[in-house]
Specification:
This protein is α+β, with helices and mostly antiparallel strands and about 60 residues long. Helix content is about 45%, strand content about 15%. It has one domain. It is built from 4 helices and 2 strands; from the N terminus they run ββαααα.
Length: about 60
């Protein structure tokens, strides 16, 4: 599923193609379960993007 988010740090809009269902996305957005329990198959970078909109490339730029 293509997910588009704005970075909480820069406001940059990015899109990632993630292996999740619309049900999983709804559960993540409801914030009543831990994301690692909803989508344990995703990498920590992918889960971070779902939560904050921050891409791995943006993290690297900020904290290189």
């Amino acid at each position: 599923m293509l997910i588009t988010k704005a970075s909480r740090i820069s406001g940059t809009i990015s899109t990632m193609d993630l292996d999740i269902t619309s049900d999983q996305l709804d559960r993540i957005e409801a914030k009543i379960e831990l994301i690692q329990n909803i989508v344990p198959h995703l990498s920590s970078d992918e889960r971070e993007f779902l939560i904050t909109g921050i891409t791995p490339q943006e993290w690297d730029k900020l904290f290189n």
